[in-house]
Structure to design on (331 residues):
């Protein structure tokens, strides 16, 4: 296959693509209002699908180098929870200025609140934790044995469950506290993309034909269009998730052609490496700025939101570098 069209660049440009994804997610949460910006930001939740795919892709590469399960869990724990607790503490008590007890804080940031009817700090981090816990089993059971029949069966089951649940059970689900199942559904309908992430890594690392990946991406997109035509809340979300796989493949295939844009690649790479920190602070920061500068935000919202996005990226990258140096000295 022509090198410029090769999906092998996913590994090389994983961090820059994650940088683009987190910026897209932040734009979605900031709800930009200008005509072009609103169209882009309205579909920013697809950035989460990029993360799901790239997370699975990275997990496969990591386990292929060292398949020790306890070491795998240790690395994932140290990457997420210290930062999750530190930034969560600062955001809760200083940016949001919430009056919550330490017990309540620990309940939220231990992710226990996500699995109960209690308070939870967001659905994404607990969902990623679930996938991290399950991944070694998937790797050793399917991928290490190169059991494509089992993988195909598992994908079929996942598609059936996701399709049934989204189409028949919760097609018009509302993302409100009165409908608490949404926090789990947001993970459920992204499972196909997550599975394709480690399957893609498996195909590339084992130097198999990439044609099967492109066929899979086009099949996902075709099914996604079908779901979109149903025009319900959850089918549109599932549609976007499925189509995002093809979009990510196209970005990866084009990455080699833009590889000479080193400044852009380096900037996006820095943003991507700090994606956890940026994700955690982007909502608390804009909430604090809205309290401090209500009039500018009311009169020039998009400009203020974009400046906040830039500020959040700078703070996130700085926090990532500082925390990484501290962690390096501790463990």
């Amino acid at each position: 296959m022509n090198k410029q069209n090769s999906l092998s660049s996913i590994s090389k440009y994983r961090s820059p693509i994650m940088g683009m994804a987190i910026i897209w997610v932040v734009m979605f949460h900031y709800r930009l209002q200008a005509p072009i910006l609103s169209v882009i930001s309205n579909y920013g939740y697809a950035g989460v699908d990029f993360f799901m795919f790239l997370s699975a892709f990275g997990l496969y590469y990591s386990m292929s180098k060292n398949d020790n399960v306890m070491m795998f869990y240790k690395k994932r724990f140290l990457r997420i929870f210290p930062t999750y607790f530190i930034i969560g503490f600062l955001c809760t008590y200083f940016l949001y200025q919430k009056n919550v007890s330490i017990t309540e804080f620990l309940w939220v940031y231990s992710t226990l609140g996500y699995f109960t009817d209690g308070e939870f700090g967001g659905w994404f981090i607990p969902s990623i934790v679930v996938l991290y816990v399950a991944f070694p089993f998937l790797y050793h059971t399917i991928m290490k044995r190169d059991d494509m029949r089992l993988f195909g069966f598992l994908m079929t089951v996942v598609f059936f469950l996701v399709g049934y649940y989204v189409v028949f059970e919760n097609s018009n689900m509302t993302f409100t506290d009165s409908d608490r199942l949404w926090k789990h559904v947001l993970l459920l309908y992204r499972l196909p993309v997550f599975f394709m992430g480690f399957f893609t890594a498996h195909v590339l690392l084992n130097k198999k034909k990439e044609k099967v990946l492109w066929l899979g991406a086009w099949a996902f997109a075709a099914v996604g269009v079908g779901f979109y035509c149903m025009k319900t809340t959850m089918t549109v979300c599932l549609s976007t998730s499925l189509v995002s796989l093809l979009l990510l493949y196209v970005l990866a295939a084009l990455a080699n052609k833009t590889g000479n844009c080193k400044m852009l690649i380096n900037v996006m790479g820095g943003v991507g490496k700090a994606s956890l920190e940026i994700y955690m602070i982007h909502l608390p920061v804009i909430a604090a700025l809205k309290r401090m500068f209500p009039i500018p935000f009311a009169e020039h919202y998009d400009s203020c939101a974009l400046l906040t996005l830039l500020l959040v990226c700078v703070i996130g990258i700085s926090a990532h570098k500082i925390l990484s140096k501290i962690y390096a000295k501790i463990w």
Observations:
- The two ends are 43 Å apart (CA to CA).
- DSSP finds 16 helices and no strands in the chain.
- Residues 3-330 form one domain.
- Confidence is low (pLDDT under 50) at residues 1-5.
